[in-house]
Amino acid sequence: MVLDSVNYNLADNDKSIFKRLWIYQSERFPVFAHGFLILAFSFSAVCYSALLRQQAYFPSISILLAAFASALIFFLLLRIADEFKDAEEDARYRPYRAVPRGLVSFRELAFLAVCVLSIQAVLAISWNTGLLWLLALVWLYLFAMSNEFGVKRWLKAHPFVYMWSHMLIMPLIDLYATSWDWMIVSGFPPKGLFWFLLLSFFNGMVIEVGRKIRAPESEEEGVETYSVLWGINTSVAIWLINLSLTAISAWMAAINVGFAWPVSILLIILISIAMVLGFKFMRSPSPALSKGIENFSGIWTILMYLSLGLLPMAWIVLRGL
């Protein structure tokens, strides 16, 4: 069975660049799987900024789609950057992945990166040149992060610092997504945006930790999961702490747009589910519960963004009809 899989993968290497990139995205950056989360993230970021400015109607669909396209490209760039950053480890421990097995080359990925960077720049210039400054800021941080800030060995020896230093890219991407509202309208971020940006940071931490908590039988050589680095109990505890910090940020952000009560109810329900899931995994770690934590992290993140951007905006619009 493994041999058949390898033969199939090698056969893919002879296909056209477009077919190979399509296979690459399905394996390493499934657009449809990630798309809904990024859609919720970007649409809600623009709507939240508009709500802070007391706007009582949805931003234009063209603005929402431009913010979505820009955010989608950022996450694709993060994936491409990881391919370069993890090249040595992937070649050694994960030869089945797209780049080590020869499906796509680093040169092709670099060309793809240049193409999508150009799209981001064109979108920004088309709407407001002020967006370019923020875009360049995110690009600069992404470049520094991809090169491990020049201290790769030190960061590898300090996994917690490694995690939060890389997660700072999330509020930067979020700041850029919100700027598709405030940069175009006023040129200045609205008061109260801080809590939404902080939410993005902790949401990123929730997903990062949640996807790297595994049952002992699911651990792979060469894959540094937090359940190995910190142990099962500590990694789950850190996941729950990040959920709690996200909840506090979400509640504060909800107060700023007059949506605190609905968000409070949602948070109580979700935190209760997370605690049950986390404690069950602590008592009896299994692949199914590990997958449950990972899936819950994604659902949590989607609901956090929807409850602060799209849903309160929809409520205000419907109430005004």
How would you describe what is shown here?
This protein is mainly alpha-helical and 321 residues long. The chain folds into two domains: 1-191, Tetracycline Repressor, domain 2, CATH 1.10.357; 193-321. 78% of the residues lie in helices and 0% in strands. It contains 16 helices and no strands. The longest helix has 25 residues, at 61-85. The chain is globular and about 60 Å long. The termini are far apart. GO terms for molecular function: transferase activity, transferring alkyl or aryl (other than methyl) groups. It is found in: Membrane. Its main location: membrane.
> What structural category arises from helix and sheet content?
mainly alpha
The name CATH uses for the topology of the largest domain is: Tetracycline Repressor, domain 2
Q: How much is the radius of gyration in Å?
A: 20 Å
Count of separate structural domains: 2
Mean pLDDT: 92
Name the helix and strand elements from N-terminus to C-terminus, one letter apiece. HHHHHHHHHHHHHHHH
Query: Number of DSSP helices?
Result: 16
CATH architecture of the largest domain: Orthogonal Bundle
Oligomer: single chain
**Main sheet specs:** none
Uncertain residue ranges: 1-8
Distance between the termini: 59 Å
CATH class of the largest domain: Mainly Alpha
**Number of DSSP strand runs:** 0
Helix share, percent: over 70%
In CATH, the homologous superfamily of the largest domain goes by the name UbiA prenyltransferase
Shape: globular
Strand content: under 5%
